[in-house]
Amino acid sequence: MNMFFKSPIDIEILLDGEESRKHVEVPASTGSGNALRKESLPLIEDGESLKGIVTLRVREGKRVEHLGVKISVVGSIDMQKVGGVTPSSASKGSSASSNASNYSATDSKKKQVDQFLYLSYDLCPPGELQHSQSFPFAFKDLAKMYESYRGKNVDVSYYIKVTVTRKSTDISKLKRFWVYLYNDISKTPNNVTTTKTGTRKIINEYTDGGNGDKSKPKETGSTSEPQENGNEQSSDTLTSQENGVVPKPVKLDIGIDNCLHIEFEYVKSQYTLKDVIVGRIYFLLTRLRVKYMELSLITRESSGVKQNSVIIDTTSIRFEIMDGSPVKGETIPIRLFLGGYDLTPNMSCNYFTVKNYLSLVIIDEDGRRYFKQSEVVLYRTR
Amino acid sequence: MSYSESVEQAISNIKQQTVLMQRSLNNRKLMDALKFTSTMLTELRNPRLLPKQYYELYIQIFDSLTILSAYLVENHSNGHHLADLYELVQYAGNVVPRLYLMITVGTSYLKIPESPREEILKDMIEMCRGVQNPIRGLFLRYYLSQRTKQLLLPEDDKDSIEFNSQFIITNFIEMNKLWVRLQHQGPLRERDQRTKERKELQILVGSQLVRLSQVVDDNLKLYKIEILPILLEQIVQCRDVVCQEYLYDVICQVFPDEFHLKTLDSLLDTSLQLSTEVSVTKIILTLITRLNGYIERVQQENENRDESNNIFQRFWKHLLKLNEERPDLSIQELSGIILGIMNLSLTWYPDNIENLNRLFSLVAQKCKDFGEEKTSESESFMVDLLTAQKLEVVKDFPIYYFNLITQCESFRTLLTLQSSSSQMEVLTKIIDSFLGRLMGTKQQTRNKDGDKSQLLITSKTQLERFLAVLEPMITHKDTKKENDEGNDTISREFTLSIYQEKLTKICHFLMLSLDKSTFKTIESEIELLLMIKNVFHKGGKNIKFTYPAIITNFWRMIRKCNIYKKRIPKKQIYYDNLIKQNFKYISRCINDMFNNCGKNSVDTIYKLNLQNAALADQLSLVDISYDFFSEAFSVFEESLSDSKTQFQALIYMAQTLQKTRSLYKENYYNSLIVRTTLHGSKLLKKQDQCRAVYICSHLWWATEISSVGEEEGETTDFFREGKRVLECLQRSLRAADSRMDNVESCELMVEILNVCLYYFVHGDEQTTHVGVSYINGLIELIKNNLKSLRLEEEQRLSEIDTTKIDSDNETNTSPYNKYNYVMGLDGTYIKLGNVNNSSSANIDFKVKDMKINDMIQIPIKHFDRTCEYILNQRDIDNRFKTVVI
């Protein structure tokens, strides 16, 4: 709307030391056309005070009457599709401000489902602006619950909004910024599981507990519900990690009857984003004519209420780790540097979760894919 | 990223990317350069390439990566730390390009002095496991090996040598696995194609062992304890024929021979564990060649050779074990191995015949086990084994064979187990080598200073063994001969058996090889000769070929006795008896020949009798001589039925008799010559009668034998009876005259005229009774006869002239002179192709295309030549002037 009228006031929001601040390149929001376009947003950490100056510029010789200038900092979760629950109903209980719309402030396609942060105060009482005026602002020690996130269906976005309230149309300006949450190991999300899904063939698990369905590999649809797996080792990992002990490796013994039997091992199940995934695959039996094997990192974003959640998988990394067909007894090393990729750490909140899975995929000469996913936790460290 | 469709495209892509890479490097844009490199490396992912094509691409890429590597090393300290790059390149999404980049960066990093070499090396080799495709994996690991060639740990202490060797071994083991695995890739029907490809790639695997040998250098302990066991285990474990054959060979070739000497046990034991399809022979031979090489080297450098263990003994044990564990081994394979071990034994222990004896006895046992059928397939192998012709280590074959024959019992055993033809082949080789030595021809080529003294028969047992070995040849029956036994023809009698010929030669060789210090007396030599004779006797009909050699040797004995007799008058009686005894042996031999061979040998027997008679006569043993003559006559009368043979036999008899001197007493001579002439006059054909008789005329006209001191003119007691001579000539002339073929009749007369002229020259008319009038009469007779012949000829000439004028007007030579014929003394026509070139003479009893005119020329020309002689003689001898021509 602002396009048609030359706004009588220019609002500029400048953070303190913005030039020298670290910026994060993020893909431009889907609404802004070109998907490949990147935008660079200043990075603010959790607990960091948000300080800066708002400058209001009035066109020369003009006067602008206003009913007050307000600055607010907002953190919101926006979704494109909300399975079962409408964004409006979901946002009912939130402390939405009077003028908060149901639509995301950043992406027109996405609707806001939650505003988990809203702080605001008046910069200036109602009056008249005759010339340009600057107002310093500060939100002290601002706690940020979530990390910024721009996913397929869900966004977590932060922005500062300056609104000049007028009798006629309000004039407002958004300034988005990006938030990283740095975790200690002890604070990592706590539900680490191994799941298995399959498009064609699933590699069975030879579990130590013996769940007893070794004989029939499960073939399910492409977007099956993630199954909780009562894997002892996984829970072990969890406890040890809680106790602050060096995490045990992920070890799995899997196979297809009379066809393939492999053991694989990742040195640990939690990685920082700059980490290296190290592991190995040991072939105990192979009757497949393997063409190649790759390791991929899948980022799974699931949003909405459990029964009707929207799950979107994104393959963040595809990494060939083996060429050709190994024979019994071969050990294939895995080494994957994560630092060079743009990855999303695990996230969890009421509205959505982001989980990461390592998927070991074996492709045979006939193009069949055999794979095994196991969850890994990625977290951000300084 | 994907690879090109064709090799050509791939190559041009690599070239293009290389150019781009270099350009980026020049602009110091490393990231771009790495991107181009990565694109180029994608070509190495192409699964459709054949090994050769892959190699082509590999070579190109290797060069390109060398450029990159040089840049990396250069710029390590200004901006591009190689440790960071090492991580960076690992982001490459595909494993093959990633690893090539990693190795390129890693090995560049190794060149930096402070780099953590050991870790980098370990990491690179570990990560290479990611490529499990045989061809791509092999080349990748080969790349690793090539790149790290100069960059392993500095070899200044034991640990780093160990580390380096472990590094190479690990790489080798993985390469070998990949190489073996290649065999099982793809469809079964392309198995052969796979094998071919594998052979093309084998060098990649083998090169690892070469590298290893360079690292190990002369560290035997390391090799023996740490390396060889692992290598051998790999070879055994892979259970792959191509691999086992190739790698065993490479191990033998690349490591020093001293190492093999010290690790012989494990090498040999391993060879037993290989796949049964592997050629054990090839493997063992390679090893033996290396061990022999050691000896040669040691000898050349005059080093002390390592005698710590008996190599032969070790191989012998191995052979027994092999024989036990692999009863399926064919005799070919086994004999190949044994030949190798023989080679080894002869190289290491040249004088040890017992070793060979053991080997031969093993083969003999094996031959018995297999039976005849199996052995026949391997004849040539056995011949090789027995003759050792292919063993270069044998420098002097005669001595080698001599030792074998005299000392190696199982050599004979094995020989007798072979097929007849193989036996002959072997024996021929052996005999030829001895004869070659005797003639001193072969000798020179192989051994400069022939020490002939070594080759002497020093005991009876040796001779016995010798003869035992020769026995198969002695008793050999020519199968071809056996077949046409039915129709006994003359031509067959003349066929010579090559084997029997060899035997006769070897008989002489043996007699010459007797050690004079052991066999001092003639008696002892005779004893050995009798031994040979007795063994030859086993040959049955063959003795007709071999006995003459024996007899000849008896003659040598007799001559020797005669010399000793003169030298030691005291022992005269002893030697006389010995001589007599020898003649008796000879007589026995001749009887044996007659009894065994019958008709086939009568001609030989006849001649032998005459020769004996001549010899006895020379020694003035009248009775013995007469006895042999009479034997000869009885053979003539009883057994020689063919008229041509009879004629020849008589001539021979006459020749022999004419030279005898001792038979005059008791009228032996007279009765013998009369008998001869009588037989001559009773021959079937007139021409034979004629010639035999005029030749017999010489029996009454003894001529000088200068070797016994006779001289014409000096000696007065020549046996000469001119009357008898003339009688003979007249008898001869009657025979000639009664020959109906007028050409031949004339010819005979001219021949008689020649004989007459001989007597006319050599004696005066009173003694010879051949006078001018007789000669003139003969000449007249011949002239008349020739006239009538010419008459016939002219008639024909005119006939032919009329037809021939047109065609032959250019050449003056008469067409009838085209061929010149003469007639031999036995009545054969001899065709001289060219008058000047008598070598092209053709001899035959009947000439098919001979024209009557040519025949007429024979007596005419002969007569002309005779007349010319008479004319020439006139100058010297006035008596000839009275001869009317």
TrEMBL record, chain A:
GO biological process, one term: intracellular protein transport
Organism encoding this protein: Maudiozyma saulgeensis
Keywords of this entry: Protein transport, Transport
Protein name: Similar to Saccharomyces cerevisiae YJL053W PEP8 Vacuolar protein sorting protein that forms part of the multimeric membrane-associated retromer complex along with Vps35p
Domain of life the protein comes from: Eukaryota
Annotated stretches, region: Disordered: 85-106, 193-243
GO-annotated cellular components: cytosol; retromer complex
InterPro entries reported for this sequence: Arrestin-like_C (IPR014752), Vps26-related (IPR028934)
Compositional bias segments (type: Polar residues): 220-243
Ranges annotated as biased composition (Low complexity): 88-106
Entry similarity comment: Belongs to the VPS26 family.
Automatic annotation (TrEMBL), chain B:
Subcellular location field: Membrane
Keywords: Membrane, Protein transport, Transport
Broad class of where this protein is predominantly found: membrane
GO CC annotation terms, alphabetical: cytosol; late endosome; retromer, cargo-selective complex
Topology with respect to the bilayer: Peripheral membrane protein
Zinc keyword on record: no
Signal peptide: none
A Pfam family recorded for this sequence: Vps35
GO biological process annotation, one example: retrograde transport, endosome to Golgi
UniProt similarity note: Belongs to the VPS35 family.
UniProt function note: Plays a role in vesicular protein sorting.
PANTHER family cross-referenced by the UniProt entry: VACUOLAR PROTEIN SORTING-ASSOCIATED PROTEIN 35, VACUOLAR SORTING PROTEIN 35
The protein's name: Vacuolar protein sorting-associated protein 35
